[in-house]
Design goal:
By secondary structure, this protein is of the alpha+beta class. The protein contains ten helices and four strands. Helix 1 (2-30) crosses helix 8 (192-232) and helix 6 (135-150) crosses helix 8 (192-232). The longest helix has 41 residues, at 192-232.
Amino acid sequence: MFKRIGLFIATNLAVMALLSLVLSVLESVFHVHLGNLGGTIVIAALFGFGGSLISLMLSKWIAKRSTGMHVIEQPSNEIESWLVATVRRQAETAGVKMPEVGIYDAPEINAFATGATRNSSLVAVSTGLLRAMTRTEAEAVLAHEMTHVANGDMVTMALLQGVMNTFVIVLSRVVGRIIDSAILGNREGGGLAYFLIVNVLNIAFGLLASIVVMWFSRWREFRADAGGARLAGKEKMIAALERLGQTYGENTLPSSVQAFGISGGIAHGVQGLFMSHPPLAVRIQALRNG
């Protein structure tokens, strides 16, 4: 669990460091400094939103390649027929186009949804889910994922990440310029000291931004659980989460789609601030109270 959270944080901070380096080069070439804050914001937004939107556009392709899934084009057995029929029925009820449906080989109970838009999505389940869950439980999991699709959660997460990336890039440079000028007397900007200050601030602000993004992800899971209960039935959704809690294992989904899986982690205290999913017991209680 700590390894997975550490990898998530390290990946995001590495991306921010790379963006900072590229922006520093652009500042030197195009003379975009604090005095031209509007120019800095524009460039930061291009980089901040660019990365997240490109990831969104490539999300289905990445998910298929990284999991090695089998996309069901024509059902070849009863299980595949049931999966496709269930997703089609739920898509019609939710008012979205039929997603692609896939199965990927993994031991844990999990499923995820991804895609650039609500009408161009992918829903996939693990072989572990098909082995361990009853049809009614699996139906609830699929309903949870279809709710993610219907709510446009993939797009919303990408936009939020873009906003946070832009915030980190701009604020680290604004504060970095102030510190560089106040402590080192460098009013012209640039230089090694300024670059080091900005990258330290990138780490600090990047951690704060990750907390905001993960808070939204946890809120979104409660909403997907509620939507799954409406599509499949509250008791089925509760039973699915209880089954997940009984058989929880290490999440082997690639980091690019972990936030859209049904399976979350177990964390307490500060660690919980960086989790994409609330604890299962809390999710179950929210359904019971809803």
